[in-house]
Specification:
By secondary structure, the chain is an all-alpha fold. The chain has helices at 3-45, 50-70, 77-87, 97-104. The model has no long low-confidence stretch (mean pLDDT 83).
Length: 105
């Protein structure tokens, strides 16, 4: 094995370790912040159920964060798809002229 290959392997291992560490920290931070907010609101209002709601929100936020970090989800991707569909129709919701010809003929 060449020296260049071993350096590349070491670099890949360090990058993988950094990604795992980053995902773990993102998951823990989302959960801890939402837990703290839930506990604070429970103490403020004297309830016991808000912490559960915020834990669910924290769990969902941590899943989204993990998907963004791994590249499975890109923020704003859904807006682009909606805008493509909207551009095919004009402001009144009527299809473009090409679609009208297809409908008539």
């Amino acid at each position: 094995m060449k020296k260049r290959d071993t350096e590349k392997n070491k670099r890949d291992i360090v990058n993988a370790f950094a990604m795992i560490l980053q995902i773990g920290l993102a998951l823990i931070c989302c959960m801890c912040i939402s837990l703290a907010i839930g506990i604070w609101l429970d103490r403020l209002f004297g309830t016991k159920f808000i912490v559960i709601i915020f834990m669910v929100i924290g769990f969902l936020a941590s899943i989204r964060s993990m998907l963004v970090l791994t590249g499975r989800y890109k923020p704003g991707e859904m807006k682009k798809d909606i805008n493509k569909d909207f551009d095919a129709e004009d402001q009144t919701g009527v299809s473009s002229k090409k679609d009208k010809k297809d409908d008539e003929g």
